[in-house]
């Protein structure tokens, strides 16, 4: 079976409704928390560690919801939203791999912010490099990620961890 290697905004919205990977499996958040407009590339091979990679994009417009409240008179995209987008994409990777369960962010190693996303920006690009995928009793991915705005890298995160769980009752 050949896996789809790119996803449109409509595909991602289907994922947020639980329609892409099936009931009870990985979902992306719905808008406004969906921080991705499209996945331009996803592969289970290649990348920095040879374990897979993912590239996604978010179009920036001055009317995005977070600019109105973060901060009044000094609008900037919250850095935590870029970090969350990277977790969203690692969880998407697990669902795309066919691993069952609901995704949960489990943490990260070092995170660095060296820039910002302003309303004048045009495009945010996320790059995820899969380091390890554990399949079994625990389904987990560990990845490194970066966020770029208009071609300039502004955030990095090492050791992004996301798991998928068939039951989150005791989580």
From TrEMBL:
<comment type="pathway">
    <text>Lipid metabolism; fatty acid biosynthesis.</text>
</comment>
<comment type="subunit">
    <text>Homodimer.</text>
</comment>
<keyword id="KW-0275">Fatty acid biosynthesis</keyword>
<keyword id="KW-0443">Lipid metabolism</keyword>
<dbReference type="InterPro" id="IPR010083">
    <property type="entry name" value="FabA"/>
</dbReference>
<dbReference type="InterPro" id="IPR029069">
    <property type="entry name" value="HotDog_dom_sf"/>
</dbReference>
<dbReference type="GO" id="GO:0019171">
    <property type="term" value="F:(3R)-hydroxyacyl-[acyl-carrier-protein] dehydratase activity"/>
</dbReference>
<keyword id="KW-0413">Isomerase</keyword>
<keyword id="KW-0963">Cytoplasm</keyword>
<dbReference type="GO" id="GO:0006636">
    <property type="term" value="P:unsaturated fatty acid biosynthetic process"/>
</dbReference>
<comment type="similarity">
    <text>Belongs to the thioester dehydratase family. FabA subfamily.</text>
</comment>
<keyword id="KW-0456">Lyase</keyword>
<comment type="function">
    <text>Necessary for the introduction of cis unsaturation into fatty acids. Catalyzes the dehydration of (3R)-3-hydroxydecanoyl-ACP to E-(2)-decenoyl-ACP and then its isomerization to Z-(3)-decenoyl-ACP. Can catalyze the dehydratase reaction for beta-hydroxyacyl-ACPs with saturated chain lengths up to 16:0, being most active on intermediate chain length.</text>
</comment>
<keyword id="KW-0276">Fatty acid metabolism</keyword>
<protein>
    <recommendedName>
        <fullName>3-hydroxydecanoyl-[acyl-carrier-protein] dehydratase</fullName>
        <ecNumber>4.2.1.59</ecNumber>
        <ecNumber>5.3.3.14</ecNumber>
    </recommendedName>
</protein>
<dbReference type="Pfam" id="PF07977">
    <property type="entry name" value="FabA"/>
</dbReference>
<keyword id="KW-0444">Lipid biosynthesis</keyword>
<dbReference type="GO" id="GO:0034017">
    <property type="term" value="F:trans-2-decenoyl-acyl-carrier-protein isomerase activity"/>
</dbReference>
<feature type="active site">
    <location>
        <position position="70"/>
    </location>
</feature>
<dbReference type="GO" id="GO:0005737">
    <property type="term" value="C:cytoplasm"/>
</dbReference>
<dbReference type="InterPro" id="IPR013114">
    <property type="entry name" value="FabA_FabZ"/>
</dbReference>
């Amino acid at each position: 079976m050949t896996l789809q290697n790119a996803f449109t905004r409509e595909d991602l919205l289907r994922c947020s409704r639980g329609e892409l990977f099936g009931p009870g499996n990985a979902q992306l958040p719905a808008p406004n928390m969906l921080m991705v407009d499209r996945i331009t590339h996803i592969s289970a091979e290649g990348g920095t560690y040879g374990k897979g990679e993912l590239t996604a994009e978010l179009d920036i417009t001055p009317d995005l919801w977070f600019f109105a409240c973060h901060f009044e008179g000094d609008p900037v995209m919250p850095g935590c939203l870029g970090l969350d987008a990277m977790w969203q994409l690692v969880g998407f990777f697990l669902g795309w791999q066919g691993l069952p369960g609901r995704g949960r962010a489990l943490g990260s190693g070092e995170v660095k912010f060296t820039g910002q996303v302003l309303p004048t920006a045009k495009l945010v690009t996320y790059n995820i490099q899969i380091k390890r995928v554990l399949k079994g009793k625990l389904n987990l991915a560990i990845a490194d990620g970066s966020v770029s705005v208009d071609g300039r890298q502004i955030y990095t995160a090492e050791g992004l961890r996301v798991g998928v769980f068939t039951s989150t009752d005791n989580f």
